[in-house]
Amino acid sequence: MRYAVLGAGRQGLAIAFDLMKQGGARGVTLVDVDRRTVLGGARRLRALAPGIPVRAVARRLEGATAVGLLRGHDAAVSALPYRHNPALARAALEAKVHFCDLGGNTDLVREALTLDRAARRAGVTIIPDCGLAPGLGNVLAAIAIDEVAGARHVRIRCGGLPAAPRGPLGYSLLFSIEGLTNEYTGEAVTLRGGKLRRFEAFTEVEPYEGPRRLGPLEAFFTSGGTSTAPWRHRGRLSTYEYKTVRYRGHFERVRAMIDLGLLSLEPVDGIVPRDAFHRIVGPRLLDPHVRDLAILRVDCTDLRGAGVRYEMLQFHDAETGFTAMEQTTGYPTALVAAAMARGELRPGAYTPDAAGFDAAHLRALRRRGLRIRRIPIGPGSGSRSDRRRA
Hints:
By secondary structure, the chain is α/β, with parallel strands linked by helices. The protein has two domains: about 1-125, Rossmann fold; about 135-330 and about 355-375, Dihydrodipicolinate Reductase, domain 2 (2-Layer Sandwich). Helix content is about 35%, strand content about 25%. The strands form three sheets. A seven-stranded parallel β-sheet has the order 3-2-1-4-5-6-15, with helices on both faces. The protein has a seven-stranded mixed β-sheet with strand order 10-11-12-7-13-14-16. The chain has a two-stranded antiparallel ribbon with strand order 8-9. The longest helix is centred in the C-terminal third of the chain and has 18 residues, at about 325-340. The chain is globular. The relative contact order is 0.17.
């Protein structure tokens, strides 16, 4: 298979590495606007997976340039900031190349999903929102919903954290600052009482007890984590919600910044506060040497509280150098890209939780080193078969 990976940052390299190691790649085109970044990324990939050609391209992906670059590949993956994804999906469709991305902004995901009819006609698969959350969390929820007879409640909790609290926010930046502030603002869309409910992001904080006694944690609403799932499951589920996990104290400090307008997009004397926040705070939160962890918990229960939990606790990989966030975001996305390239997914535009992934998909994630456990919860297991182990 020939793959194009758009974006040579942290997640992009993890995606490309997995495609080279387990995605059947016979060649990867790595693209980034920054020449130094893409050349350095290509060198790292060649060292990690020798023998598989990596073509490094320093180019801005716009219009006909993007279409021409994508042609000839079996699948393309966007690890660029979410704002680029709808245009790249259209370019992939014109080039007749399967396409997936990391998503994160539900309005832009919906824009990509409008390509469904054209994608089906062209025999092309387009799957946005393939990362960790949104992405893997929603896929595990879909698997759990199929397992639990009479499923009514889905609650997803997820967080990428330094291995110990760091700095004034107890946090280190593990992906783009633009993605972080996008999650911290806007609205969280949920199902509650079977009805669509919208909550301001960065509200409804609650204590959270994570695995392995990680210390005091908290969880709160952020935007984008549920993706389109609340609409998809309306009429079947009573609850579908997502909250982000951080070390305790993070919420109070960042909430104060939000209330002071520091993440606003409204200009003040010609200055956009959020842009200034990105430039000032971003570098101070970024530590390339940080050792991190990623937490994901998906609970699916029936009316009695019986059901199943999928839980993951992932750590930095010393062998490859990939962080927990890079692994848990990049590997699930690469797995989707490989399935598209092999022709295993139906044409059209849809999110990964609508792809029909099952226990085989979960086994493939585990083969990539993702430590995902299945735990029956509540009275009995509530699953269609207590002996079934995804």
